[in-house]
């Protein structure tokens, strides 16, 4: 008696193999899409969190909100998308340097959020320019007083988004921050 497969057994075996392969391929494609979507959400949420931490640290340390300040020849005016802060200068031990101030501006343009620092020569705080996010959809500041020099509460509303696999992944963060030194 000869051992072997009949044509029907071979066709059934191939059909089962094709069905299992298709199921595995579908699983792989779905896993890939979910993984990259989650990775995009983690990225945009991390960007929002980092920006919120930078804002919170600066606002807590600030003496006041300034109506405007000139940074390297460019005037920045506090408004809906821009926040200019005056902070007491600090030495390397974290002590306040008397009658010396550092200045910070946070501003959004297009899809970017930036932080610019102008530190006094006696301050240990580093001067510099930094991009905080490149996924900004909308970014607004709202103040509790029309006279910005009297304002001590800032509502920050940021909406960020990224696109992964032609799918837009939004993230919304609203935070109320207070000037601690006021």
Summary, kept brief:
The protein has about 180 residues and is α+β, with helices and mostly antiparallel strands. The chain contains 1 helix and 10 strands.
Number of helices: 1
Low-confidence stretches: none
Number of strands: 10
Helix content: 25-40%
User: Can you tell me the overall shape?
Assistant: elongated
Distance separating the two termini: 98 Å
Characterize the biggest β-sheet: 5 strands, antiparallel
Give a quick set of tags describing it.
single chain, 182 residues, alpha+beta, five-stranded antiparallel β-sheet, three-stranded antiparallel β-sheet, 30% helix
What does this structure look like?
By secondary structure, the protein is an alpha+beta fold. Helices cover 30% and strands 43% of the residues. The protein is built from 1 helix and 10 strands; from the N terminus they run αββββββββββ. The chain has one helix at 7-61, and strands at 64-66, 68-71, 74-77, 82-90, 96-109, 112-118, 128-133, 136-143, 153-164, 167-178. Strand 9 and strand 10 (167-178) form a beta hairpin. The longest helix is centred in the N-terminal third of the chain and has 55 residues, at 7-61. It is elongated, with a radius of gyration of 27 Å. The mean pLDDT is 92.
What topology does this entry show?
Layout: H1 7-61, E1 64-66, E2 68-71, E3 74-77, E4 82-90, E5 96-109, E6 112-118, E7 128-133, E8 136-143, E9 153-164, E10 167-178
Antiparallel strand pairs: 1-4, 2-3, 4-5, 5-6, 6-7, 8-9, 9-10
């Amino acid at each position: 008696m000869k051992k072997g497969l009949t044509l029907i057994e071979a066709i059934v075996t191939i059909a089962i193999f094709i069905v299992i392969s298709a199921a595995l391929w579908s699983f792989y494609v779905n896993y890939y899409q979910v993984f990259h979507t989650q990775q995009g959400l983690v990225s945009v949420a991390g960007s929002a969190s980092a920006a919120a931490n930078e804002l919170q640290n600066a606002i807590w340390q600030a003496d006041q909100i300034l109506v405007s300040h000139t940074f390297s020849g460019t005037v920045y005016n506090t408004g809906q998308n821009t926040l200019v802060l005056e902070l007491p200068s600090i030495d390397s031990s974290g002590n306040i340097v008397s009658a010396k101030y550092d200045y910070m501006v946070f501003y959004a343009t297009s899809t970017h959020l930036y932080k610019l620092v102008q530190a006094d020569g006696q301050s240990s705080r580093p001067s510099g320019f930094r991009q905080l996010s490149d996924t900004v959809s909308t970014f607004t500041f709202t103040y509790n007083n029309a006279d910005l020099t009297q304002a001590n509460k800032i509502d920050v509303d940021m909406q960020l988004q990224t696109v992964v696999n032609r799918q837009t992944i939004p993230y919304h963060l609203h935070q109320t921050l207070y000037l601690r030194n006021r």
